[in-house]
């Protein structure tokens, strides 16, 4: 307390000067219209700039959340557009029945936004890590997508993180179909460019053309039908000459992958258990 009083006594003339300056400016701007208008104009400009900077800072720090929401929304809309397109094509058959089927299919899926925290594209067997795990409802064998297409399949899960086998891995094997054509095969990545992959086992009698879209077939328990994979760039014969091999330009930019969604299919567990039971029943019994 003594030091505070000593400090105020030592610099009292400065405090008196500041007080008089403030009082003079108040009187100047309050009782003179011109100076008052200049003050308010300047104050409004300064306040506007401060609010603008504040808004810019808040917008910057909210971009991550906005990007996640947009990714989530894009995946949902892409799937919905595919379902509606199929419904339009088949409208002459039984549009009401088809609509009920498509809506019931959509109700089985829940999309869980996640962020990629580790990724690689230059290895034979690439892996990526996301910041969602068991605590968030992620399980092994769930599909992972982004706003532009397929990413991969969950391989390992911990409490708060998951490792995903992406399309850019020799272990990846995703069932795909040529959109609107009905022919399906399996997506493989032999290495090399991160924006190219191949769809094998397309039958020789299949009719399609270059730049047709390739989408997930929906024949597995991992991905719903219609998730975008890429576009056909080239067509080759298989090694045995019995099928086609399609070179596909992938729609997912794996080198710039940040936000993804994990697909939670409510019926996946039941289908996997049923398939395993069927496989077990077909195994030869030992006496």
Short note summarizing the structure:
This protein is α+β, with helices and mostly antiparallel strands and 287 residues long. Helices cover 40% and strands 26% of the residues.
CATH class of the domain at 111-286: Mainly Beta
**Span of the ends, CA to CA:** 96 Å
User: What is the number of strand segments?
Assistant: 12
Strand line-up across the major sheet? 1-2-5-4-3-12
CATH topology of the domain at 111-286: Thrombin, subunit H
Shape designation: elongated
- What's the CATH H-level superfamily name of the domain at 111-286? Rod shape-determining protein MreC, domain 2
**Low-pLDDT regions:** 101-106
Report the biggest beta sheet as strand number plus sense, adding barrel if it closes: 6 strands, antiparallel, barrel
The helix/strand order is HHHHHEEEEEEEEEEEEH
CATH architecture of the domain at 111-286: Beta Barrel
- The class by helix and strand makeup works out as alpha+beta
Q: Strand-residue fraction? A: 25-35%
Provide a count of the helices: 6
CA radius of gyration: 31 Å
Binned, the helix content reads: 40-55%
């Amino acid at each position: 307390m003594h030091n505070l009083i000593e400090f105020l006594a030592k610099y009292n003339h400065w405090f008196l000067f500041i007080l008089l300056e403030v009082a003079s400016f108040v009187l100047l701007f309050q009782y003179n219209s011109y100076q008052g208008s200049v003050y308010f104009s300047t104050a409004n400009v300064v306040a506007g700039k401060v609010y603008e900077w504040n808004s810019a800072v808040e917008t910057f720090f909210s971009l991550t959340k906005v990007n996640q929401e947009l990714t989530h929304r894009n995946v949902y809309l892409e799937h919905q557009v595919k379902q509606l397109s199929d419904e339009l094509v088949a409208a002459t058959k039984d549009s009401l029945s088809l609509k009920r089927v498509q809506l019931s299919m959509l109700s089985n899926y829940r999309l869980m936004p996640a962020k990629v925290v580790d990724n690689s594209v230059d290895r034979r067997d690439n892996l990526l890590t996301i910041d969602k795990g068991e605590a968030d409802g992620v399980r092994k064998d769930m599909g992972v997508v982004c706003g532009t297409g397929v990413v991969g399949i969950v391989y390992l899960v911990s409490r708060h993180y998951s490792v995903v086998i992406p399309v850019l891995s020799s272990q990846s094997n995703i069932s795909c179909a040529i959109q609107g054509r009905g022919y399906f095969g399996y997506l493989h990545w032999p290495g090399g460019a991160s924006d190219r992959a191949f769809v094998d086992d397309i039958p020789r009698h299949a009719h399609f053309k270059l730049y047709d879209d390739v989408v997930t077939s929906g024949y597995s328990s991992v991905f719903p039908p219609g998730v975008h994979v890429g576009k056909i760039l080239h067509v080759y014969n298989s090694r045995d000459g019995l099928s086609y091999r399609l070179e596909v330009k992938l729609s997912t930019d794996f080198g710039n992958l940040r936000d993804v969604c994990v697909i939670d299919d409510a019926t996946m567990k039941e289908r996997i258990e049923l398939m395993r039971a069927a496989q077990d029943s077909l195994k030869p019994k030992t006496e």
